[in-house]
């Protein structure tokens, strides 16, 4: 099918759900559901399959479906995020769709996959840096997690290091998946800048106790941190 004809195809909820039914995998559903406590609407469609379908949808007329979607399944929400990330559009227009989508994120799986697929953030760093600012102080778990995962996915650069630490400290939303994202981000920054991050963690950091301990744990689990650094971090964990 040529590109013009592809663009004329209207994406519908029925089309999407039919695809999901045809590609559901009961065994994978059971496995993936076990990784998503509290999420009970997983059909069990594997991520590579979803990515391929989302790329196809992104070349069609998807905007009405995206706006009017009444997601019943985890994978429907995942697809909407992936389509926004894959579709060809200007940065400003994409950020408008990102803004519409972020409140619909309701699991760590959708959050993390969406963030990692937003490759625009690497090209338009300033725009995305400014864009995630309001989410740092959101009182909604997955909006705050979105901010943390965007930082660890797209801003682990020396020029952002100091301000990124301050931003992570500003994320104080109290729920589990927010705190775990901040801890994950700290560990990723540590792997990239071990000396600076060690000084930070040994100094006057402002992380709460849970997030601090989880950060140390994730650092010791990272394959990107050398043995000597892990030894120091393990001693810090033992001291409590």
Quick structural gist:
The protein is mainly alpha-helical and 240 residues long. Helix content is 68%, strand content 0%. The mean pLDDT is 95.
Topology:
Blueprint: H1 3-8, H2 13-23, H3 26-34, H4 47-57, H5 63-68, H6 74-86, H7 91-101, H8 108-117, H9 120-123, H10 125-131, H11 141-154, H12 161-170, H13 176-192, H14 194-202, H15 209-221, H16 227-239
Helix pairs in contact: 4-6, 6-7, 6-8, 8-11, 11-13, 12-13, 13-14, 13-15, 15-16
The total count of helices amounts to 16
**Dominant shape:** globular
What is the total tally of β strands? 0
Mean pLDDT value:
95
Termini separation (Å)?
62 Å
Oligomer: single chain
Category by helix and strand content: mainly alpha
Largest sheet: none
Over all CA atoms, what is the radius of gyration? 19 Å
Which stretches are poorly predicted, pLDDT < 50 over at least 5 residues?
Answer: none
Strand content: under 5%
Helix content: 55-70%
The SSE order reads HHHHHHHHHHHHHHHH
Q: Would you give an account of this structure?
A:
- This protein has 240 residues and is mainly alpha-helical.
- It is built from 16 helices and no strands.
- The chain has helices spanning 3-8, 13-23, 26-34, 47-57, 63-68, 74-86, 91-101, 108-117, 120-123, 125-131, 141-154, 161-170, 176-192, 194-202, 209-221, 227-239.
- The chain is globular.
- It starts with a helix and ends with a helix.
Notable characteristics:
68% helix, mainly alpha, 240 residues, single chain
